[in-house]
């Protein structure tokens, strides 16, 4: 049998994102050994029992012979992890991440990885689910899903290609953006929708007739608020990390709501229908792609 592409990978955060990455590479016969690190002993033990990792990491020194390290923790934890792993990275060890923001992660890497910065290739897998933890991991999570790489000027073409290959082995479709482009795009199409979903549920949750409202909530409410079941810790970090771009998008959305409100106040049926029809057309064309 041919040797696996990655003899050893190390995962920091063996939940949905990190665990699925390990399982996908296992399914592709692309990894020899998977080692997990994390804050919770119970989660790590569960990941081992589920076959996500071969063993629980005990010493950062073993990063020295790792081919690939994935940081799959909330972005707020990454600076500390980077500072701790930097002295132990082997000369040929590549590091990537699964963070939903990139400018802040890149800044953290520059501040904490030092002369190892060329070994860090930032990434963002556009895949997920409301459930988290090792039990939520699935080998096909990334199949047919987008992964965005935001390579740094210091990265070699070979290093970028190797990380790209890892994600492609997971079944992902890999694209490239700059960190700034990434954060601007995802503030609009991901971070803002999550913020709105959390805000709506929070609003209803504070009302005295909450139970009555939720009793009659149907599929429209369920679809719109599905993402409010996501990890509060993760989305807290994402919103703060991409605060400037998210605030710009929130201001634009507030302006759009003001236009809709003005049409309602004026009883302007034509304006409301124009807005709804345009939105419907754009969404229909998007889902047909």
Quick summary of this structure?
This protein has 289 residues and is an alpha/beta fold. 50% of the residues lie in helices and 13% in strands.
Please tell me about this protein's structure.
The chain is an alpha/beta fold. It has 2 domains: about 170 residues, Rossmann fold (3-Layer(aba) Sandwich), CATH 3.40.50; about 110 residues, 6-phosphogluconate dehydrogenase C-terminal like domain (6-phosphogluconate dehydrogenase C-terminal fold, Orthogonal Bundle). The protein has 11 helices and 9 strands. The protein has a 6-stranded parallel beta sheet with strand order 3-2-1-4-5-6, with helices on one face. Strands 7-8-9 form a 3-stranded mixed beta sheet, covered by helices on one side.
| N to C succession of SSEs | EHEHEEHEHEEEHEHHHHHH
Structural class: alpha/beta
Going across the major beta sheet, what is the strand order? 3-2-1-4-5-6
Q: Determine the CATH topology of the largest domain.
A: Rossmann fold
Q: Give the termini separation.
A: 40 Å
Largest sheet: 6 strands, parallel
Tell me what the CATH architecture of the largest domain is: 3-Layer(aba) Sandwich
Helix content: 40-55%
Strand content: 5-15%
The CATH first-level class of the largest domain comes to Alpha Beta
The strand count comes to 9
Per DSSP, the total helix count is: 11
Mind telling me the C-alpha Rg?
A: 21 Å
Please tell me what the overall shape is. elongated
Please mark out the parts with pLDDT under 50 across 5 or more consecutive residues, or reply none. Answer: none
Q: Can you identify the CATH superfamily of the largest domain?
A: NAD(P)-binding Rossmann-like Domain
């Amino acid at each position: 049998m041919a040797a696996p592409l990655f003899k050893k990978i190390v995962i920091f955060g063996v939940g949905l994102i990190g665990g699925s990455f390990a399982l996908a590479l296992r399914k592709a016969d692309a990894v020899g050994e998977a080692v997990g690190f994390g804050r919770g002993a119970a989660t790590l033990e569960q990941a081992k029992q589920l076959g996500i990792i071969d063993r629980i990491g005990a010493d950062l020194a073993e990063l020295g012979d790792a081919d690939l390290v994935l940081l799959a923790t909330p972005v707020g934890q990454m600076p500390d992890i980077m500072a701790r792993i930097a002295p132990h990275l082997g000369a040929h060890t590549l590091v990537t991440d699964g963070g939903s923001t990139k400018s802040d992660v890149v800044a953290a890497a520059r501040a904490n990885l030092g002369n190892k910065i060329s070994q860090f290739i930032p990434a963002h897998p556009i895949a997920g689910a409301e459930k988290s933890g090792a039990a939520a991991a699935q080998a096909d999570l990334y199949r047919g899903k987008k992964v965005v790489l935001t390579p740094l000027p210091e990265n070699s073409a070979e290093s970028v290609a190797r990380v790209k290959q890892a994600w492609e082995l997971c079944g992902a479709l890999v694209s490239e953006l700059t960190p700034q482009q990434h954060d601007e795009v995802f503030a609009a199409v991901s971070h803002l929708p999550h913020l709105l979903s959390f805000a709506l549920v929070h609003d209803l949750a504070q009302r005295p007739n909450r139970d009555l409202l939720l009793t009659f909530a149907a599929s429209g409410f369920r679809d719109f608020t599905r993402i409010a079941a996501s990890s509060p810790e993760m989305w807290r970090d994402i919103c703060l990390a991409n605060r400037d771009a998210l605030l710009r998008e929130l201001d634009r959305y507030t302006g759009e709501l003001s236009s809709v409100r003005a049409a309602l106040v004026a009883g302007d049926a034509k304006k409301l229908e124009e807005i709804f029809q345009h939105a419907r057309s754009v969404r229909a064309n998007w889902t047909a792609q």
